[in-house]
Design brief:
Blueprint lengths: L1 H15 L3 H6 L3 E3 L2 H11 L6 E2 L14 H9 L2 E4 L6 H7 L5 E4 L9 E2 L30 E2 L18 E2 L6 H18 L4 H26 L7 E5 L3 H7 L5 E4 L8 H13 L4 E4 L6 H7 L5 E4 L13 H17 L3
Parallel strand pairs: 1-2, 1-3, 3-4, 8-9, 8-10, 10-11
Antiparallel strand pairs: 4-6, 5-7
């Protein structure tokens, strides 16, 4: 516990203690969402500060870029995002940009799963969804960079198109650790003068993420086996890493509005399977979740895949995962 806290504190301290000479010489970097921004911030600590493109308080699925954000993309040396098809409006804004576009969610060392279908997933097995096993502290074995203009459908190693893949890859901390390798490598390729700093920061971040997995695994163990429904199908990477599977989701993985059939299935699931909690998200109205649990014994909890309440910076990613775990445990342990 002490070591975990000290690693987080060290990352934050180096972030705010960056020298003006190094910061002035660092590359211009833009990052799509807060969890990835936190990882990049950690690696860039002492060199520069990346720009966060999508505000943390909104759902990325329903956002429209402002002119200032489009300009940030056009002026960037590097743009880090999950992958082009996750947020198509970012891909559109990046057309014609000279920036190096890096799809962290498509690095070959990142575990990827197919998106789940339907509103309920009883007995759902992740094993055939492209899990490449545990990550070691090794580098990525692929490029992970998008060629300009190559934003069409791609395929993973199992022949699945990107449209069928769940792109919320960052919610597995071991995926985040694999992404860290890609971030370090990319920054060094653009800014070799600060290579030693990037390597050192990356090594510290990987240690932090390894400690984070051990901590969360212990915390959620007390509620394994409890039935719960998530609002937005964004959590299977977290669920699979920590062996705490949800029973279904109100919205599809893309955040699209649920059909009447889907809502009926979810309501039936809550009533028939002794569901303990239905989790809403701060980016969405709570009325739908409230209507689903009305007249049942299920409680409403709140979980957040983005970190809407967190300040951007190196410590945000670990706090995001810790908050997600504690919110799950707090709601489920009462059932």
């Amino acid at each position: 516990m002490v070591r975990f806290g000290s690693l987080i504190a060290a990352a934050a301290l180096s972030y705010f203690a960056s020298g003006t000479v190094n910061a002035a010489s660092g590359p211009s970097v833009a990052v799509s969402i807060l969890p990835l921004h936190s990882l990049v911030s950690s690696v860039m600590a002492g060199v520069g500060e990346p720009t966060l493109l999508i505000p943390r308080q909104v759902s990325p699925h329903y956002y429209s870029l402002r002119p200032s954000q489009v300009r940030a993309i056009s002026k960037a040396d590097i743009v880090f995002w999950t992958e082009p098809t996750f947020l198509p409006y970012l891909s559109k804004a990046a057309r014609g940009s000279k920036a190096k576009l890096v799809s962290l969610g498509k690095l070959s060392s990142v575990v990827r799963y197919k998106a789940r279908e339907g509103g309920v997933w009883e007995g759902h097995d992740h094993g055939d969804h492209g899990d490449h096993g545990d990550h070691g502290d090794h580098g990525d074995h692929g490029k992970g960079h998008d060629k300009h203009g190559d934003h069409g459908k791609d395929h993973d190693k199992h022949g699945n198109t990107d449209d069928h893949m769940d792109k919320h890859t960052w919610l597995d901390p071991l995926n985040a650790r694999a992404m860290t390798e890609g971030i370090v490598r990319t920054l060094i390729s653009v800014d070799p003068a600060n290579a030693s700093r990037y390597k050192s920061n990356g090594a510290d971040l990987r240690k932090t993420l390894t400690a984070l997995v051990k901590r969360i695994d212990g915390e959620v163990s007390v509620v394994r086996g409890k039935s719960f429904i998530v609002f937005h199908d964004a959590y299977q990477y977290f669920e699979n890493r920590f062996k705490i599977p949800a029973s279904g989701s109100v919205l599809a993985h893309s955040g699209g509005a649920p059909s009447a059939k889907r809502l009926y299935q979810i309501r039936k699931k809550i009533l028939s399977k002794n569901t303990v909690c239905v989790f809403r998200e701060p980016q969405f109205d709570s009325k739908l979740a409230e209507s689903l649990v009305n007249g049942t014994g299920a409680r409403i909890g709140t979980i957040d895949p983005i970190g809407s309440s967190l300040e951007p910076g190196p410590s945000a990613y670990a706090l995001l995962i810790r908050n997600l775990a504690s919110s799950l445990v707090d709601c489920l342990k009462s059932g």
